[in-house]
Here is the input.
Amino acid sequence: MAIAGADIGHQRKGLPPVTGVSGVWWGGRTSSSICWESLVASSYPSLTRALAEALVDVLRFVDGSEDEQMDQDDAVRVMEGVAHVVSALAGDQRQELVGLVGEMAAAETDPDRREFLEGFPEGFGLIDGPC
Here is the structure.
């Protein structure tokens, strides 16, 4: 992707077209920024997968935090807040997240993280527990 007008100046000077740069609107102006997508290949197949991975890592940190790392009342509020949000997802969204977490658990080599992933759907209200 090129910034409009940037290629014209480069063409006049005999330079190659600008690539890998996109315009970013910030504070009433457009500024150039590097489009990292073209420079670094993502290790995630989708934004949803990347966000699910990040969410699990944050929640696992919060869940395992000690008093010195995080106030335990705040930790409980974070965990309950996430449980509320994910339990309120539409049925197809909940199933998508359950599927993603299941894929993550199946591929996980760290036993502690795998255990957290396996308990995630029930623990965060995505599925009902055993009867």
User: Anything to note?
Assistant: Confidence is low (pLDDT under 50) at residues 1-13, 18-27. The two ends are 54 Å apart (CA to CA).
